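A.,

Following up on our hallway conversation. Structure tokens first:
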């Protein structure tokens, strides 16, 4: 047995999260794509069957009350809250991340007030955030300025209305300085909006602690909610009265069944709701979140860093020098839960890796992405992935 393989065995033996793997439906594939679509928690199929057969099939309309369908967006928001460091009453679940980016950004600009005419967006952002920021700027009559996250402090000023940033870069896995950047944005009198898609469920976020104003995130990556599971919107408690959503649907009305002509927003985080919630995927997500019972995000972060450190060590040990280049920062404070390797023929290499039972993904033009979900990825998986990568590249 190679030295890394022996070490993997020892690391798995002392891994306090190792038992969690049994709560997922997995086969002998090394699944390193949980940063794109999380694996299926074993509790979900039975719960979805109950929702469909009993709650919908038998109780039908009664389920809006009796099965708690009506309050699911805020109830599940409160279940996500501790995972992102938020007290209850500040998160609603629903719609896609893209839609929530629009709500958050337009809401942020409206909060910032008339005198501020510039919107800053992470120049390296996931594309949907950039497209929507451009539209939000047009809708609100502001100018959009793309800025690299590190340059945000220097770009802030009296003109800045809001800033949209990604906590972890989807391509490189770089973790941005949420506490520092949020403080800088707020000090400039602007509103900070964070996209947590690649951090929630993988590392501590500390929304309340760091004074984040608004945040959005998806639930199908590290939160394992399933394909297209609904996203969430966080609005800091002190700002909720001023949150003026660009999508004021009947579900966020103060009196949704009053059927009034004029819109009056509900109090609190409920203002982030729009229309009828997507109950089937929402309740699948609620079941999926049960795997977090008894798990601390700090333990997840510690294991995530150990996994990514170990992967880099194994890649160094096995892969011929110069064949791949790591584009993920080595410093822990700058690393999310993925490793991105630049490689000449990355698309083809990833296809061959998948054929050999190591599933990551490819991002154009030349990046191999490997996501490490501490709840179900072990150290032996990591060693095998690096070994198969080396064989594939040989
Ligand atoms: C950082 C980031 N933001 C936004 C999105 C888009 O989310 P959705 O397609 O659910 O709207 C993604 C999807 O992967 C993402 O990674």
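Then the amino acids I'd put at each of the 394 positions:
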């Amino acid at each position: 047995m190679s030295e890394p393989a022996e070490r993997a065995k020892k690391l798995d033996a002392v891994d306090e999260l190792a038992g969690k793997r049994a709560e997922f439906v997995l086969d002998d594939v090394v699944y390193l794509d949980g940063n794109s679509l999380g694996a299926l928690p074993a509790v979900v199929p039975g719960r979805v069957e109950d929702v469909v057969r009993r709650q919908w099939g038998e109780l039908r309309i009664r389920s809006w009350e009796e099965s708690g369908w009506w309050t699911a967006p805020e109830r599940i928001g409160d279940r996500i809250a501790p995972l992102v460091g938020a007290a209850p009453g500040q998160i609603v679940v629903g719609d896609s991340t893209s839609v929530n980016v629009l709500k958050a950004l337009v809401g942020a600009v409206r909060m910032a007030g008339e005198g501020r005419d510039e919107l800053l967006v992470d120049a390296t952002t996931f594309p949907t955030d950039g497209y929507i920021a451009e539209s939000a700027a047009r809708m609100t009559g502001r100018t959009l300025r793309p800025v690299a996250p590190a340059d945000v402090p220097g770009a802030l000023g009296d003109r800045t209305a809001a800033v949209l940033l990604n906590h972890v870069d989807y391509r490189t896995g770089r973790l941005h300085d949420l506490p520092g950047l949020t403080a800088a944005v707020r000090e400039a009198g602007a509103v900070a909006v964070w996209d947590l898609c690649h951090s929630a469920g993988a590392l501590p976020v500390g929304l309340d602690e760091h004074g984040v104003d608004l945040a959005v995130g998806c639930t199908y990556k590290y939160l394992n909610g399933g394909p297209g599971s609904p996203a969430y919107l966080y609005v800091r408690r002190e700002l909720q009265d001023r949150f003026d959503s660009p999508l004021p649907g009947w579900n966020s009305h103060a009196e949704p069944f009053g059927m009034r002509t004029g819109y009056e927003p509900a109090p609190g985080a409920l203002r982030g709701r729009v229309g009828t919630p997507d109950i089937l995927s929402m309740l699948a997500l609620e079941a999926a979140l049960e795997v977090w019972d008894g798990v601390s995000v700090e333990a997840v972060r510690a294991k995530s860093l150990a996994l990514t450190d170990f992967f880099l060590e194994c890649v160094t040990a096995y892969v011929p020098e110069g064949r791949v280049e790591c584009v993920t920062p080595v410093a822990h404070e700058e690393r999310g839960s993925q490793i991105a390797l630049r490689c000449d023929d990355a698309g083809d290499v990833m296809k061959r890796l998948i054929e050999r039972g190591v599933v990551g993904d490819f991002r154009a033009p030349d990046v191999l992405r490997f996501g490490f979900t501490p709840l179900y990825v072990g150290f032996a998986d990591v060693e095998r992935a690096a070994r198969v990568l080396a064989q594939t590249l040989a």
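The radius of gyration is 22 Å. Curious whether your intuition agrees with the design.

B.
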